[in-house]
Amino acid sequence: MANTGKEYEELVRDIQRSLINAENIPSLKNINIEKNKKIKDRSGIDREFDIYWEFEIGGHTYRSVIECKDYSSPVSIEKIDAFIGKTNDIPGLKLIYATRTGYQSGAKIKAEQHNIQLLVIRDQQAQDWVDDDGTPLLKSIHFKMTAILPPRIINFNVHVDKEWFYSQNEYTENTLPYLFKTELSDAIFIRNISKGEKYSIHDLSRLLMKKVDNMVYGENIYAEKIDNGYIENANSSVKMKIKGYDCTYIYRKPIEDVSIIDFSEQIKAIVEDFITGKKKWVLKN
To answer: What pTM value is reported for the model?
Structure first.
């Protein structure tokens, strides 16, 4: 499809609107930026301009026009001459030329002589993300989030102190399997009197991270001997002396997620003053 330049004209108009709004000057609000504006010259001939806008400050009207050229090569002096001839019989215009690819040296000289502002309005390029001394600018931020999941206990066995068990009369082998049957894992506690520890089976999942050195991924078994301890409910109304316990657990690899903030995706266009070298970044929205 042939390049008619219409798409570039739309881009330039949008960019100009963004630049005006960024000035945050009340008198410049709601300016109507027109496309294909026809203005009569001194001879009464209609001259058409790609972009036109005007505003009034202190009783004086300021008018600006932009000639947009979406060329694949730098603008020549002949194009600047044509722009000068087109506007020569229309006084009071601020003249601006816009292109993607820059200007030939003769075009620059001619534009400076006639106070024509030369703009390069283009997409961002790799060199835009490097400052004058070659230092790369911050282009993106990568947020790496790692969720370390505690081991999940899938089986738990206690080692009852048989000497204690057969010396007491409260519990029997028949009632033993039902002592904690209705309790949740966060309501069944291991109390290690020798070490001064008390934790629920639910908490044990987290504590395994400290109890097991060099924990490996996958299904594993952990066993602990207890010299003096009990398995009991929350208020210790039900308790049984134990020699230790073992549990089977699954330890999974951490879940990693990376979120990227790419600042380049926020850039709508780069506006560069070809004569002064000053550059502006215009953001989307």
So the answer is: 0.66
